[in-house]
Amino acid sequence: MDLLIKLNFIGGRELTKSSIISLKNITVSFNNQIILKNFNLDIKNGDFVTLLGPSGCGKTTTLRIIAGFVRPDVGDIFFDGKRVNDVPAHKREVNTIFQSYALFPHLNVYDNVAFGLRLIKKSESFIKDQVIKMLRLVGLSDFSNRDIVSLSGGQQQRVAIARALVNKPKVLLLDEPLGALDLKLRKDMQTELKNIQQQTGITFIFVTHDQEEALSMSDTVIVMDKGRIQQIGSPQDIYNEPQNAFVADFIGESNIIDGIMKKDYLVEFAGREFECLDSGFSPKEKVDIVIRPEDIEVTAPLLGHISGKVTSVTFKGVHYEIIVDIDGFKWMIQSTEIQLPGDTIGLLLQPDDIHIMKKSEHSGEYGDYRAFSDEMYEVYEEQGQKEN
Amino acid sequence: MKSKYLSVPYLLWMLIFTIVPLFLVVFFALTDKNGNFTLDNLISVGKYSNVFIRSIYLGGLSTLLCLILGYPLAYIISKTPAKNQNIIILLIMLPMWMNFLLRTYAWMTILENNGIVNHLLSFLGFGPINLINTQGAVVFGMVYNFLPYMILPIYSVIVKIDHRIIEAAQDLGAGKRKVFSKILLPLSISGIISGVTMVFVPAVSTFIISKMLGGGSSILIGDLIEMQFLGSSYNPHLGSAISFVLMILILICIGIMNQFDDIEIEDSPQKLM
Asked: Among A67, A116, A147, whose Cβ lies nearest the Cβ of B173?
């Protein structure tokens, strides 16, 4: 026993940074359809981690494995270093905020929040103390006796947060908890959740298909597609250094162009050579090039590296979204200056605007902005709602 | 304005077939043969208090058995794949397509002293057991006939309970027993009340089942009322008085049960009484 305490003490500093949840070689399938294949994931204690991906990518399943609602066909789940495959959901030290909130309709706000503490037989005075403190944290102090059905979506959301957090779980799982809120409220709740996470230091595992939400809230973003992890990194890494065409396309807008690496720091695309910051490719290697629409500088046709004809302009508030035809490939540019359809403009590309990725299975899946619309994201959202 | 006229036929229907008969029952219960006001009928109902007690006891026992059998079954059905649920519900409803009288008559022949059950028991060496004409047979007949009325309302409530609410309870640390007592039971109480009402009321006032399976040895209120109208001891005034008392007793029972239903749940099926 003494030895154990000593070991913990010595390891103390590493332990705080150590992984609190590990998924090892997880495979899950429903009805012969593989959802997760050979999935590995480590989640660090105290992190705000987001699982980001389109509907059906396996992100919710991953969350449900951690919560204990789904048993993997193959593989192990470790919690704080202990294997928890056989630990049922009600004995795991995690709490979940469900997409639909799943509040108890027969209990009022207070009793909903007190539910978990009552199960572990805490004294009513202790429970009262904790529940009131938690309701204050989520701004629902005056709502103790209200019926669940009389609350708005945002208020129900807060009750769900309080109900989970009051148990002081080591890990909080959030399954698209903001999906049903309107834009303004969603933004507020993002900030609030982030604050709560920082105040409590609880590990948050957040599932979303909204890339902006993922980027603005997380310490670490895990981009998933088709049951596999595509990239793990900080929001900046994910945005600035996407590892493949899928990540580049899913996170933000991007022009993904075929190119050939001439040599280190020199790449050829769009009919000419560009200096770049990437190296380590074999000579003449075919690559995918990502250029973010906001990085492109618009100039006079003759002053640009390349030039093309404007085909459409959409006002987006902060900027104009300009589609430019360059030798038959439609680029997207975001600029604060208006251009007129039919005009010819020049584009300037600096070396640090050009990001080069190795060819992957996703190469060629994403064309240009020929048929650009928001449809794809709408489809994702619809599927997301159906799935849940 | 149109909807106002649409309700007229129903109001008329209720007036002719509900209000007027109710009034007649009360009128008969409070008058003698000459149409003079009297409380004698109601007072003489007291002589049959043992029949009332027996009816309520057997009806209550049947209701309890239906609940014990029906609730788990309703829960299990709600957990089976959706496409199988309809088939199981159909199977539960299927006997109800047959005439009530015919079903009870069939049980009479099955349970009689040289019926199938006793043949089987003799074959196994347990000797013939007197099954028919016992209170047990009456309770069995009631449970058999009224079980679907318990299962269906409970099932229709349980099937609407969001499984994510169950998951949320588990997530917060509730094991199977706590999920049942803290979530499932309170959320299905309206179904239980409907089921109990739908079984208890006809069970208390049945007369065919006790007549056929009880052999007249243990008459119930229903038999008593029947006798006053169709039997040898023709006395509609006493029959009405018994009906009147029975109605009041049932109303009290329902009132007590509804006290448990202080929970307002969205989409709860309309109570039938």
From this structure: A116
Could B173 and A98 be called an inter-chain contact, meaning their C-beta atoms sit closer than 8 Å?
no
**pLDDT band with cut points at 50, 70 and 90 for residue A118:** very high
Quote the minimal CA–CA distance from A42 to chain B in Å: 22
Q: Where are the domains of chain B?
A: 49-259
With CA atoms as reference, the chain A residue closest to B168 would be: A102
The pLDDT, as a whole number, for residue B211 is: 86
Q: What is the pLDDT of residues A54-92, one digit of tens each?
A: 988 999 999 999 999 999 999 999 999 899 999 999 999
Side chain identity, residue A69:
F
Contact at CB, A89 and B171, closer than 8 angstroms: yes
What number is the ipTM of this complex? 0.77
- How does pLDDT run across A17-50, given as a tens digit for each residue? 688 999 999 999 988 888 998 899 999 999 999 9
Per-residue pLDDT tens for B22-50?
A: 999 999 999 988 888 888 889 999 899 99
**Environment class of residue A119 by beta-carbon count within 10 Å: exposed (0-12), middle (13-18) or buried (19+)?**
middle
Domain ranges of chain A: 16-240, 253-360
| pLDDT at residue B226 greater than cutoff 80 | yes
Best residue in B165, B171, B265 for a mutation probing chain A (most A CBs within 10 Å): B171
Q: At the top level of CATH, which class does the domain A16-240 belong to?
A: alpha beta
Q: CATH number of the domain at B49-259, out of 3.40.50.2000, 1.10.3720.10, 1.10.287.1700, 1.10.357.140?
A: 1.10.3720.10
B window 133-192, beta carbon within 8 A of A: 162, 164-165, 167-175, 178, 182-183, 186-187
pLDDT at position B262 is 56
Q: Please report how many Cα atoms fall inside a 13 Å half-sphere around the Cα of residue B171, on the Cβ side.
A: 35
Nearest CA in chain B to A96: B171
Cβ within 8 Å of residue A248, ≥6 positions away: A242, A254, A256, A288, A290, A355, A357, A366
In chain B, what residues touch A89 (CB-CB under 8 Å)? 167, 170-171
What number is the average pLDDT over the span B203-207?
Answer: 89
Class of A253-360 in CATH: mainly beta
A232, A248, A343, B20, B132 from B127: Cα distances, Å:
76, 82, 104, 54, 15
